[in-house]
Design a protein that fits this description.
The structure is a homodimer.
Chain A: E1 9-12, H1 14-20, H2 28-40, E2 45-50, H3 63-69, E3 77-81, H4 85-91, E4 102-108, H5 111-118, H6 122-138, E5 142-148, E6 152-153, E7 157-158, H7 161-173, E8 178-183, H8 190-201, E9 209-213, H9 220-228, E10 234-237, H10 257-266, H11 275-289, H12 296-306
Parallel strand pairs in A: 1-2, 1-10, 2-3, 3-4, 4-5, 5-8, 8-9, 9-10
Antiparallel strand pairs in A: 6-7
Helix pairs in contact in A: 2-3, 2-11, 7-8, 8-9, 10-11
Keywords (chains A, B): Lyase, Metal-binding
EC number (chains A, B): 4.1.3.4
Pathway (chains A, B): Metabolic intermediate metabolism; (S)-3-hydroxy-3-methylglutaryl-CoA degradation; acetoacetate from (S)-3-hydroxy-3-methylglutaryl-CoA: step 1/1
Amino acid sequence: MASYPSRVKIIDVGPRDGLQNEKQPVPAAVKVELVQRLQAAGLKEIEVTSFVSPKWVPQMADNAQVLHGIERQAGVRYSVLTPNMKGLEAALAAPRAEWPDEIVVFGAASEAFSQKNINCSIAESIERFAPVVEAARAQGIAVRGAMSCTVGCPYEGEIAPEKVGYLAGLMKGIGVQRVDVADTIGVGTPLKVQRAIEATQAHFDIAEISGHFHDTYGQALSNTLAALGMGVWNFQSSVAGLGGCPYAKGATGNVATEDVVYLLQGMGIDTGIDLDALIDAGVYISQALGREPHSRVSKAIRIKRAG
Amino acid sequence: MASYPSRVKIIDVGPRDGLQNEKQPVPAAVKVELVQRLQAAGLKEIEVTSFVSPKWVPQMADNAQVLHGIERQAGVRYSVLTPNMKGLEAALAAPRAEWPDEIVVFGAASEAFSQKNINCSIAESIERFAPVVEAARAQGIAVRGAMSCTVGCPYEGEIAPEKVGYLAGLMKGIGVQRVDVADTIGVGTPLKVQRAIEATQAHFDIAEISGHFHDTYGQALSNTLAALGMGVWNFQSSVAGLGGCPYAKGATGNVATEDVVYLLQGMGIDTGIDLDALIDAGVYISQALGREPHSRVSKAIRIKRAG
């Protein structure tokens, strides 16, 4: 049998990746409260917002208000998306104590997705990220690279592992310190996900690779298990499954943090997360959105609580 | 990395285990049509009904009508539940060509569950099954033993692997030919499921063990992957996730066959099943029940079809 890591770090991307893809707008104060509930539940990494033009992503127009509104907790890493220099400058327009700990640049392993999503080729996106990465690192800020569509693409279909390796190499080349292997449309299955991770390992250590799986086809936890079996111990997920799937309206998107934590706890893997407090955080934000949490664990445990 | 079987056989338990736990009654003709759609989609084993007192399970009162109404297809194995001699006699009260290919006796690894579900201890249930197994095998009918609550029990909580081994040994002792390792309430995670299977392997070959996982906590596919990694190549699932969870009203029960098939096809494992035809069979029975299929794969693919 495979051997698994003894501890796992979860990066909750709900406040950014999740809420960015929810239709219902949420006030900045609710986003701040969500981040604080997540850190109270034991999350040590939280993707809080995006410094991108409100013309493109109106849901994140309150980025500065959210980033600077959080009562920070020692030992927690707060990250924000900064697609360009303007975004980075905006993220740093505050006293140093309120800077993000990490910035994220968002690329794609699919040329078609890169073109449709950020209006440029993969190579051009890297050219655009390079000065952002350099400026951030010069200020002592960590840099993570999101690699989207590493298994499948809504426009190109299946993505070859070589394309993932190509993107990972470009990311490494400009100074990105760690990367997410993301199955953006949730079509991946264990062996395909393992091949995408393998291709990434040509450029990054296993500790620098995080798994980011969507549950659109219900495969996220088996993909998580497959990645764990390779030694991956960083994973991204979204409390209450925030986010949905922009490429399949009505379908499930980001895997719910609750479901990932249940899997890990059941396997005796330390996450440092209080599942009950996490479920409550998911209920809190779901109520603000006027819907149920998209998490089977949340549902089953709440039914049990109601007894 | 683990090595996986090259082919998997799925036993669809939707017409029996699924419909038995659905509130909305379904006419016998619809059940027959469901079985026929499943075999047309490539299913080679189908659990079609239960010969149990209609006083206890009114949903299965039409058992003979369903069993004898099916236009059988060569190479397909039709199984029925027969909890006692009366049930077996009723199942065989027809010309030989209309007999079931296999009967199923339903036990539990939890004493409390055995008491609450079938009103006797585990040892007493085995005594009750023994003559049924003997009579069936004397007629050349195969016998499968369902082992429920092999990971967790709604009354006892976690179930030790030793209890699973104990039940498996008793089943073997009375001539049961193969067994299901069932996570009846869906609380299992990969390592726990693997320990239940290991305990069963003390008495049965891997080819005689099937995995039966519920998706109440969203863990069924990761448990399936864990079992595949041990060489298990028989799995039970329910088209459209028929059945729900009787121990957590409103929660998910049997894992959807669609979701299992997607996982296996994505891993290059042969199932012989046409996923599109299977999805249509799930839509057919869900419409009869007045609800949506409980399958993320079905939902994502139908959204894609609608384009």
